[in-house]
TrEMBL record:
Origin species: Paraburkholderia edwinii
Keyword annotations: Signal
Matching InterPro entries: Cytochrome_P460, Cytochrome_P460_sp
Key word Transmembrane helix present: no
Protein name: Cytochrome P460 family protein
Signal peptide (residue range): 1-24
Keyword Chloroplast set for record: no
Domain Cytochrome P460 residue range list: 43-166
């Protein structure tokens, strides 16, 4: 199983290096579009941030997902620092899973689906555990209903880990 994950991650990272999903371009053209409730925007330059981990989720979406972290988030993850310091930002990218034409057991990124952003600011987001949330589809914020579920889900499941699901991949 570990070998399969390693192969999938390597395939995904190689594909990322050679492709530009639609949300990469939308980062600059829609950077000021802010999420409802939290006012979070897609951060400039996030595609150059470090890889944190894959984000495989048990859901019917059939997506490949990875999480990237800005320098403040990476430092906290590397040192196992909780709570995350203000200024930490995590970005989850998702694509439809497409079978690889070259290697049947592997998948490669297809169409981009979402960019999800978490921004740590303990004063501004006091009522949501210090985190602001943004979910973007084609560079535009998802609807209000999708944002209303962000904190509730994190609070119910990972309150003891500063509301963050992601762990640094070894």
């Amino acid at each position: 199983m570990k070998r399969i994950w390693t192969g999938l991650i390597a395939t995904l990272l190689l594909s990322l290096a050679s492709t530009t999903p639609s949300f990469a371009a939308s980062n600059d053209t829609h950077a000021e579009a802010a999420s409802p409730i939290y006012g979070v925007t897609i951060p400039h330059g996030y595609r150059k941030w470090q890889f944190v981990a894959p984000a495989e989720e048990a859901d019917p979406l059939n997506e490949l997902r990875i999480v990237l972290g800005n320098p403040a988030a990476m430092k906290a993850l590397e040192k196992n620092t909780l709570p995350f310091p203000d200024g930490s930002i995590l970005v989850k990218l998702a694509w439809k899973r497409v079978p690889s034409a070259e290697f049947a057991p592997a998948s490669v990124p297809g169409a981009a689906t979402t960019v999800q952003v978490m921004v740590k600011n303990s004063k501004r987001y006091r009522d949501s555990g210090g985190w602001g949330f943004g979910r973007f589809i084609n560079g535009q914020p998802a609807d209000l209903a999708q944002h209303q579920t962000c904190f509730a889900c994190h609070q119910a499941r990972v309150k003891n880990h500063d509301f963050v699901f992601t762990r640094l991949a070894p």
